């Protein structure tokens, strides 16, 4: 119960990692504020949180819109009177196209959701986080660790998010607010299962073979699951990481060493 009675705001709540973040924070004792564009998805996750004995408030949110983010911040404070942690998990993958031909408006969209939205929401919650000695965690990606064709725009946005987290750690540290990053690789959830099934059909092989090939590139010979990535986030939100700020923790079962 390392987050007992704390209040955590989580943006980008979806069926995979977002859900895992909400449930693991609840299992660690936190009440949560859940934000995403799809209200039905928020309702489903909130019901799971309440079954764990914790409270959940849902706020349909467009993280690219200032007024929408302000409504999220205001609702969190009106509902609980405090905010102890913020997890910026919203993201949009830019087109997986070479930089030489990628549409620049699409690249801008990736920056808007992947970096500027995280800055927008963090700034709105800084006063509350400073009052509680809180923590911010940015959800990044293992794209930081490699340079592959067609991933350039995605890497640019995630590199910006990492720089944002490091700079905010320096700016907000004197106020007692910690800012860290978690960088997962593949996450074994529904979206990846669909993708591996798709690859298997294209190649005429079982999806398990696709999984095994991906897992073979990791030290642990498996892919991390949402709860395992979420556990790293819970650690960084908790007092166990009270002297950790400005850091990036890779959670990839040993695919990349950093």
Automatic annotation (TrEMBL):
<dbReference type="InterPro" id="IPR002347">
    <property type="entry name" value="SDR_fam"/>
</dbReference>
<dbReference type="Pfam" id="PF13561">
    <property type="entry name" value="adh_short_C2"/>
</dbReference>
<dbReference type="GO" id="GO:0016491">
    <property type="term" value="F:oxidoreductase activity"/>
</dbReference>
<dbReference type="InterPro" id="IPR036291">
    <property type="entry name" value="NAD(P)-bd_dom_sf"/>
</dbReference>
<keyword id="KW-0560">Oxidoreductase</keyword>
<protein>
    <submittedName>
        <fullName>Short-chain dehydrogenase</fullName>
    </submittedName>
</protein>
